[in-house]
Amino acid sequence: VQLVESGGGLVEPGGSLELSCAPSGFTVRAADMNWYRQAPGKEREWVARAVGGGSTYYSTYYADSVKGRFTIDRDFFKNTLHLLMKALKPEDTGVYYCETTWRGTEYWGQGTQVTVSS
């Protein structure tokens, strides 16, 4: 099982960015998946979750700090997990990771850097 994130970059405050996570070894339809982030000098924090492994319909949950601005989504055709981020703030800067627990083992991607700065 591997998770590979992409889509990070430099964006101005108020801008948008979409991150992708491409898993291998399982399908995004079958797993509950999360996005986390880690800002410089801070602990890793949970950002968003897509729950409902095995179903087309799933529930989503968000940290209060991103609610209303971020959207977690799964593309079943491409087998990818996405995080659409809007109205970005400098405090959203950090390394973003996708994560899942598959068959009892936790997996993390290598992370993708998001920098929000003017």
What keywords describe this structure?
118 residues, single chain, mainly beta, 4-stranded antiparallel β-sheet, 0% helix
Order of helices and strands: EEEEEEEEEEE
Q: Low-confidence parts, pLDDT < 50 over ≥5 residues?
A: none
Q: Over the alpha carbons, how many angstroms does the gyration radius reach?
A: 13 Å
Average pLDDT reading: 94
Instruction: Give the N-terminus to C-terminus distance in angstroms.
Output: 37 Å
Largest sheet: 7 strands, mixed
| Structure classification | mainly beta
Instruction: Output the number of helix runs.
Output: 0
Helix content: under 10%
Walkthrough of the structure:
The protein is mainly β and 118 residues long. The chain contains no helices and eleven strands. It has strands at residues 2-6, 9-11, 17-24, 33-38, 45-51, 59-62, 70-75, 80-85, 94-102, 105-108, 112-116. Strands 2, 4, 5, 6, 9, 10 and 11 form a seven-stranded mixed sheet that branches. Strands 1-3-8-7 form a four-stranded antiparallel sheet, with no helix packed on it. 29% of the residues are buried. The model has no long low-confidence stretch (mean pLDDT 94).
